[in-house]
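Support request, please re-run this one:
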Amino acid sequence: MLAILAPGQGAQTPGFLGPWLADAAARDQLNALSEVAGVDLAHYGTEADADAIRATDVAQPLLVAAGLVAGRALLGDSPAPDVVAGHSVGEITAAALVGVLSDQDAMRFVATRGRGMAAASALRPTSMMAVVGGVPDQVAAAIEAAGLTAANNNGKGQIVAAGTVEQLAELAANPPARARLIQLSVAGAFHTVHMQPAVAELAELASGLSTATPTTKLLSNADGAVVDDGAEVLSRLVSQVGNPVRWDLCLDTLAALGVTGILELPPAGTLTGIAKRNLKGVALFNLNTPDQLTDARAFVAEHAGVAA
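Re-run finished. Output below.
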């Protein structure tokens, strides 16, 4: 049983799209997505430095476009995956790949999302911090005591706390026992109440978008559930901006479904790394460059439609 996963913000690295743009069809596809998003994706995916692609209003459309380019190239001649999911902004990629949104509407949505979240981040200094290790109950208590939100639960041993810089300083001064704190290079407290200003604009845009029934199982960041109604998927994508990402529950669903193979779309490595720690025995494939497509298609054929 095959799962295809799309990574979220922070996975991007300078130049990661360069190999894909050697293909004329991929360049044309990316140029079309750039026009919709109002962002020069070819430039940011090949020439821009780490600081430039860290910007929220750049990183988000760049990641979705990368997933769509690679995903279409992979799946055009391959069996359909059994389940698809994306982490945070990657959930938009996933929704487009299973037909809930057109690629063009997905880019409109993510461009609006990126701009809205960037604007919300500018209202007050906020950020995010990964808490790695520690006793789960003690980690949760320390995050709550500092007034922070557990914005991402990424499975065993990793919670991402988010809130104001003052609250994060409080957590750093009073860390949970046996936990390591890692300040994340992000511009705001994503998936918290601080992002609510971005939700209203997204909801207005979403009201004019058409949706379709997912062509395969699609997991929701909200609770790990399989969502089979397109309008419900879109509604959850809107509310996701201001609510925590429960990737741990998505992992639970992947395990319950009996997934045997996970392929992560570019820039790949983050979600397969999490899966390696949480889903023992599941085969993993990081698709990062087009020269891997032959092997990736073989991986898809090996796992798609095969019961555990």
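The chain has two domains: 2-121+192-303, 126-183. DSSP finds 13 helices and ten strands in the chain.
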